[in-house]
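Example record

One chain of 84 residues, shown exactly as stored in the release files.
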Amino acid sequence: MSPRKSIAVDGLASATADVINELLSNQTLSGAELARRINRSQNYVAIRLRKDSPFSVSDLRDTAAALGTTASAIIERAEATLGK
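Predicted structure tokens for this chain:
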């Protein structure tokens, strides 16, 4: 089995990962705890947090709920950083 290739993550997808990382930091939560809360493996979440692959829409929804916010709020914050 060959290793899985990384998907280029830039723009909004990258900014979204940044917002999620910031929310985790602000709530002093680990990626492992986020993985547990959204019923995904720690590796799956780590790949997305380090921007090797983007969050899917359903993962974004579940992640937002686990962090006490909404997917649209995360996207809005990410979009705001792109304009800077």
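Notes: The longest helix spans residues 11-26.
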